[in-house]
Structures are given as C-alpha cells and as structure tokens.
Amino acid sequence: MTTNVETDGIARGVLEELGDEHLVLAVPGTEYRLRLATTADGSTLASHLGKRIKGRIHANALWMHTAQAGGRFVEPVWGAPRIVSGAVLTVDEAKNRLLVDVAVPMWVTLADGQQATDFAEGQMVNFYVTSGTSFEPVGD
Questions:
Q1: Could you tell me which of 43, 31, 41 has the C-alpha nearest to residue 103?
Q2: Which residues, in sequence order, are bridge partners of residue 117?
Q3: Range of the domain at 109
Q4: Which pTM was predicted?
Q5: I want to staple 17 with a disulfide (CB 3.0 to 4.6 A). Which of 1, 24, 50, 88 is the partner?
Q6: Gap between the Cα atoms of 96 and 38, Å rounded
Q7: Burial class, 114, CB count within 10 angstroms (exposed 0-12 / middle 13-18 / buried 19+)
Q8: Could you report the per-residue pLDDT of 118-131, keeping only the tens digit for each?
Q9: H helices present in 9-139, as ranges
Q10: What is the pLDDT of residue 34?
Q11: Do residues 60 and 109 lie in contact, with contact meaning Cβ atoms separated by under 8 Å?
Q12: 50 φ, ψ (degrees, to nearest 5)
C-alpha cells in the first residue's frame, strides 16, 4: 500500500457549524456530521462556513483492536466520535500513531502500552476514542 502522508492524511468536508472551541464537519457523500474540537482562529474559519474545508483530524485511542472483517465508520454519525473502525493507511513509529481511513483519514495516537509497530498497513482496526477528537485546518 502506497500512502502519501501529505495528501492522504488530509480530511475534506464542508464546515457546517463553528463554535468557540469546536466545529462541525460534514463529510461529502455521507451522512456524517463530525463535531470536532479546534484551536484554530475562529475569525479565519468563519470565512469557510458553509464551504469546503480541509485539514487533519487527530484522535487518541483508548485501546486499539485488530479486526478480521468490518468496515470503515465513525459512531455516532452526528456528533463527537466515540467508536471508530477502519483500515490502517500509515504506521508512524516515531510519533506512535497510525493514519486510519475511517470514512475520512484520521491520525490516531495509540494508548499507553500499545506500539504503532504492532499494526500493519492495510490491517482493519477498531477502537474507542477519548473526548476531544480535533480538526487542524490546512491550506485553502
């Protein structure tokens, strides 16, 4: 599996809502409305309201499991991510994280006691995430 971390790690969506410390990202072609934390400047993001936006999604796994089968999904469909399932795109050993395709690409930092090298590209995984999954806008 060949992954270009610079492009494949970028989530694309429509900025549907903007709050003081969160935003709602609508994922095109799906019913997903992901409520994500952000520390980005609200005045800069306000110009993207109702328009396309791209950025990196970061989450912290409580404990990651491998799966023999399954799909790519985020639960709940509307709201802050809690349960996630997808395919590993990239293993980042240096930062102990994985890039996982879960309907959108998501960088996932592993729980204490787990190592990124325990997982392989293409492997299906599922996990709960801690509160505060975040969105970091990139470029225009």
A1: 31
A2: none
A3: 5-137
A4: 0.91
A5: 24
A6: 22
A7: middle
A8: 999 999 999 999 99
A9: 42-46
A10: 98
A11: yes
A12: 80, 5
User: What whole-number distance in Å separates Cα of residue 17 and Cα of residue 112?
Assistant: 33
- Beta-carbon contacts of 67 under 8 Å, excluding residues fewer than 6 positions away, are 85, 124, 125, 126
Token pair in block for residue 58 = 């970061």
Would you state the pLDDT for residue 68?
84
CA pair distance 39, 15, nearest whole angstrom = 15
Which two tokens mark 34? 């992901």
3-state class (DSSP) for residue 8: helix
Do the beta carbons of residue 111 and residue 61 sit within 8 Å? yes
| Closest by Cα among 78, 14, 20 to 48 | 14
Length of the chain: 140
Number of domains in the chain: 1
Burial of 99 by CB count in 10 Å (0-12 exposed, 13-18 middle, 19+ buried)? buried
